[in-house]
Amino acid sequence: MSGVLGAAAALVSNAAHAQTYDTIIRGGTIVDGSGLLAFKGDVAIDGKHIAAVGDLGSATATDIIDAHGLVVAPGFINIHSHAQPDAVATAVNMLTQGVTTEITNADGHGTTDITKQLAGFAANGLAENIGLYIGFNAAWAEVVGNDDRRATSGEIARMRDILDLNLSNGAWGVASGLDYKPGYYAHVDEVVGVVSVAGKWRTNFPNHDRIRPEENYSSFKGMAETIAIGEQTGVIPVITHIKTQGAEQGNAAAVIAIMDAATRRGTYTAADVYPYLAGLSGLSLNVPGWAIAGGRDAMLKRFADPATRARIATETETAMKRRWNGPDGIYLFNMGREFADIVREMNVRPGEAVIRLLEQQEHSAILRFGKEEDVIAFLKYRNSAMACDCGASIGQKGHPRGWGSFPRVLGHYVREQKVLTLEDAIRKMTALPAAIIGMNDRGYLAPGMAADIAVFDPRTIRDHATYQEPTKPSEGVRYVVVNGIVALREGRSTATKTGEVVLRTRHMPSRPMTPATMARGLQVTGDVGGHDKSYTVAVSLRQQPGQRAASGKLTLTDVRSGTIWSTERIGTLQNAKGWTSVTAILRDPAGKWHAAMVTLDEADTSSGKAKPTLVVQLDGGADMIGIPK
User: Which of 39, 84, 445, 547 has an alpha carbon within 20 to 30 A of 182's alpha carbon?
Assistant: First the structure.
């Protein structure tokens, strides 16, 4: 441990010991997101960025947070979010879990104009960072509608244009829920025809896998379909809220083997997972797709025909048996009742009970699907990120994952069950999800990274929410920092609104997370410019296996004045094929510190062929673009 601490302390120059910062989180156990061993140290914040990590000695700050006995980690990134627009201004249920960033429109939901949608989210301020996917289902519903029919070539082109425009406007990938109508009706070749436009964006395809009666309700086949779409479109397939269901329970190893095989074939395959044995959806998920085609009015007409009603009831019962092990697997949380009790009270067959309930309204249901051994296997899988399938909410009903997911992993699965190490659990909540979606300025505690930080007590962190009391707050998260400002202090919201809209650019590819055991480097020079500024960039960096940060030099020379901005501290190098990015703290000639991010992108083929591009961002501002020499 002393060697690790020494390496961490080396991140801070001697000059830093007399520095004054905005905030210092002092004396905590730092788990930096890389997966490397924890170490004792301090984290300094200047403005919106992390300024230093390590032993800060006698450095002072306006705000000093005593983190002795606490864990200091990057803010958690929820890449499968259903955040409610009226809740993101407070986001208490997420902040108290340590979440600082959410990527919503999961399962293909949302609108076909994310710019307008983001403006709506941000209208009353943001307590957390918010980004959006563009939903395949949203595009299909707008262009094709709710009918079960084939899309024309013109409609395929329109949907491609919707995806392309929204990806250019900052969407973090193409999310899909092929198990949900009307996306359910799309054939694989149609999905591929639409989603393939995203290949040039080097992005990801998180999909709620499609479970179909003609495939005996096999979740295996649904997950294989997700992977196949990724392989055919050139995007990273993400098996979202990964699970095995019904008759396939207890076979997580087989699913992992399918994913590993795809990765070996050259299609890196990732997943997200939450730590529960039940999901949440509409009761109508049990009704066969053909019975819902055309929307609610069409469904009710089919219910009214006696012969059709009987067929729907039979097929609904088959779905319940295959997916949730029958009526006992369903709890209607909006009614606060077990579905099996309602069936007995109605004195009808289960399928008929579903129809009668849906004739009144859609009902939200807790759907029990799995085995604990599968949850553990998926939590442990190296390419599975933690995500709660929840989001900022002010509702009083729902699934306990909305208040408990991240603390449940850290309390139950790390501290109590010891099926995950603390370092790997944090990696799965931070740097791994960031890499999956393409984010490169969050996910690590490193100089130059955005100052999104979670501080929690590893001895007490735990969830308290249950299916009967789903909004009971978790405990243990003590402080949360969002873009440099404390948003949660001693477990209570400070009501600040320092969250930001986060957008993806074409130079932020989805990718496997850089292994901490990999040696990497960056050697590049070039000129960049934009916004009436221009700089010559010179980078010569190396990072050895097991090191937390790169070493070497990174300088910017102002082309107009000839003044040089020199390296103060360097963050971690992130690598993918043809792409490398690093953050750093630079000092300008006046002695002022600046957060910098430098990216060399040699694999961008959006213009038809690979065109090496050098990108520099200063203090979180707009990109300055150039061509490496």
Answer: 84
Confidence of residue 609 (pLDDT cuts 50, 70, 90): confident
Measured CA to CA, the distance from residue 257 to residue 269 in angstroms comes to 11
- Residue 368 confidence (pLDDT) above 70: yes
Cis peptide before 182, with omega less than 30 degrees from 0?
yes
Predicted TM-score (pTM) of the model is: 0.94
Q: Which residues contact 130 (CB under 8 A, 6 or more apart)?
A: 83, 88, 101, 102, 103, 104, 118, 121, 122, 499, 500, 501, 502
- Span 2-69 CATH architecture: Roll (2.30)
Residue-wise DSSP of 178-224: TTSTTGGG--HHHHHHHHGGGGGGT-EEEEE----GGGTT-HHHHHH
Q: Which residues contact 492 (CB under 8 A, 6 or more apart)?
A: none
The runs of H, that is alpha helices, within 25-127 are: 92-95, 114-122
Which residues 6+ apart lie within 8 Å of 298 measured at CB? 146, 292
Q: 74-277+370-492 adopts what CATH topology?
A: TIM Barrel (3.20.20)
d(CA 26, CA 66): 5
Nearest one of 85, 70, 130, 376 to 250, comparing CA atoms: 376
pLDDT of residue 165: 98
Q: Residue for token digits 């992977």?
A: 227
Contact (CB, 8 A) for 88 and 127: yes
DSSP state of 627: E
